[in-house]
């Protein structure tokens, strides 16, 4: 299909799926529709392993949104679809540049849309789909719509005739959806990649090209030997400092008296923030010294060993922070924030692992950014596929200090567990609140449904 056909099909799909509907199951269907259409439109030679993996994750992300309908699932659908489209069009473009491409296209839409020749391909004589569409559908529909409103204002019976048959038309909603559909379709099927982005792409390779020679030091006031020595001294001093910090950190964690909930919460967050900041700075320092020449410098072996030791010590720090967060959870239960701490620490540990590989395998700094891009994408997928609310509630419900109201109001997708709990504890107020919430979701029209709530049976069993 040509670009303008794909754009107009997208507009039609948006109108059909979202007209007078809430965003729910319809977005999941829309995501699957775009995924399949992208797969069909992609050239066979571009359908490699990464593309096929993204196709699968796009389908699963769309299903996850249809099931949960939450913000993280929406992010997973959005990112998966655009990654799929970009990878199927420019497979050699580094993933880190996809962010730049997307942002440019989001904000240059108004300038590019008026360049009609670029996206609306002129059909061959006698084979104009667009001409037939305009002739047989758009022009008649335009006049019918105008005169429909004229007649509706002139006759109440005429207007009621359509109201009674549930054919109420909302022109503003229709127009807004058409504009949104065109915007999405245009950016998705007709995104542009500027020349300067292709020039940037060659600087983001994972491997160094050719022999890398140490031409000159980073700073003019230091020679190569001095810079190498400064790096060795810096890493050695930082290793000693980090060892002392790990010792004091673990002493406070395992040997000092347990604090109150507020005190432990503040302490945990302060320490985790310090750990994450420490690791970010550690990675930046390593990237500074191993950005180019020192990767291949035979005299920099001691520098490499010191850097690797520092990475290992930072990994120990991550594990210590994870244990501290686990202590917090054991004492006061699971929450979204406490699970989020694990996520941040996991990303920090992954960053350290890739940094270690970068030094060991003599990779470029871009290698780390390229790998962390996919790691972040993987984190989004994991967060969207798993029912964390169920995990939190099923874990906390075993505790004596189970906070009923907190889990009822602040935790999502745990209604089935709470219903069983309310039944056991004979908490009629909670049971009624849950039933009202579930029924409100189940009463929605098909395209506005969230599938998770369709699996919950709130009907009372019939007495024999």
Alpha-beta classification: mainly alpha
Output the number of helix runs.
Answer: 21
**Helix and strand run:** HHHHHHHHHHHHHHHHHHHHH
Rg measurement, Å: 29 Å
Helix content: over 70%
Shape: flat
Major sheet summary line: none
User: How many structural domains does the protein architecture include?
Assistant: 3
> Strand tally, please?
0
The separation of the N and C termini measures 61 Å
Mean model confidence by pLDDT: 85
Q: Which spans have pLDDT < 50 for at least 5 consecutive residues?
A: none
Strand residue content: under 5%
Keywords: Membrane, Transmembrane, Transmembrane helix
InterPro entries: DUF4153
Transmembrane segments: 6-39, 51-84, 96-114, 134-154, 174-193, 232-251, 271-290, 341-360, 372-391
Pfam family, one: DUF4153
Outline:
The protein has 464 residues and is mainly α. It has helices spanning 3-18, 25-41, 49-68, 71-89, 95-107, 109-113, 116-119, 129-154, 156-164, 171-189, 195-201, 224-254, 261-289, 301-332, 336-361, 365-385, 388-396, 404-409, 415-425, 428-442, 451-454.
